[in-house]
Amino acid sequence: MVDVLVALGERADAERRAGVALAALVEAEGLSAREAVDWCDGQVSAREASRLRAVARDAAAEETDGAGDGAAGSSSAADEPVRVDAGPTAER
Question: How many CB atoms lie within 10 A of CB 45?
């Protein structure tokens, strides 16, 4: 049971980090959502990229709302806050 819960926590953290990275490609690098997906070399679909960005956006919202309670996948002091664009994207 513990191994299952740890693995699920790790997966959730990995999805959050992937979403943050995709958001950074769109925001910081100025790519469109489609271009960001193309840069992933077929490993991520547009739908999956959209879902991962939503995971990152939801995690950032939880942190700013004070809902982060130190559960698995919480960020360290070295992590920077992430701003995720909620505007229109190419995957819609």
Answer: 12
